[in-house]
Amino acid sequence: MSKLVKFFIAADDVVAALALRGGPARALESVSWGNFDPEEAVIEWESLFTGRRVEELMDADEPRIVAGQDNDGYVVFAFSDRLVSVLGAAGLVKIGEVAVLWSQVREQDGEALDVDVAGEILGDLARLARAAERQGSGVYCWVA
Fold first, then answer.
1. Are the beta carbons of 133 and 84 closer than 8 angstroms?
2. What's the pLDDT at 88?
3. 8 φ, ψ (degrees, to nearest 5)
4. 11, 22, 29, 90: most buried, per Cβ within 10 A?
5. For residues 75 and 3, what is the distance between their CA atoms, to the nearest angstrom?
6. pLDDT value at position 114?
7. How wide is the angle at C-alpha 123 spanned by C-alphas 29 and 113, nearest 5°?
8. Running DSSP on this structure, what letter comes out for residue 95?
9. Which of 88, 94, 76 minimizes the C-alpha distance to 129?
10. 5 forms bridges with which residues in the sheet?
């Protein structure tokens, strides 16, 4: 599990990559969550929101690494445009449905994820996605 996870908005990959060692600057809108594998979660979210298979997303190299490497402790990766779009369009009912499904997926893998917490995480990310779309920016994740 990651120690520090911040989801943030950046204008592009170059700006997002600057967050690699120190995290997103205060000037970048962000939300922090932890106690789950964010790369795995992003794939699960896209699968649950869009119906695409997890294997298909992994074969497409989702999520796309922008800076760092998975095994060196620091990484910045991008949400797909499709995930940003479905998160941005998701209302409370859809977020609640996906939160239940995500909690069930985590339980099947032997991890406890409270449905209310899952809903809070997805709700925060939906607000971040809407803000990113208004700004013409992307959503990224910094992991340390």
1. yes
2. 96
3. -150, 165
4. 90
5. 12
6. 93
7. 115
8. H
9. 88
10. 143
Q: Is 27 left (phi over 0), alpha (psi -120 to 50) or beta?
A: alpha
Strand partners, 9: 139
Label residues 41-76 b or e (16+ Cβ within 10 Å = b).
bbbbbbbbbeebeeeebeeeebbeebbbeeeeebbb
**Tokens representing residue 67 in the block:** 């800076």
Output the six-digit token pair for 87: 């998160």
Q: How many C-beta neighbours within 10 Å does residue 86 have?
A: 19
* Residue 29, both tokens: 């809108």
Per-residue pLDDT of the chain (144 residues; tens, 9 = 90+): 546 899 999 999 999 999 998 889 876 789 998 878 899 999 999 999 999 999 999 888 889 999 997 666 789 999 999 999 999 999 999 999 999 999 999 999 888 899 999 999 999 999 999 999 999 999 999 998
Task: Check: CB of residue 63 under 8 Å from CB of residue 78.
Answer: yes
CA end-to-end distance (rounded Å), the chain? 10
Provide the CB-side half-sphere exposure for 116 (13 A, CA): 0
User: Which pTM value belongs to this model?
Assistant: 0.92
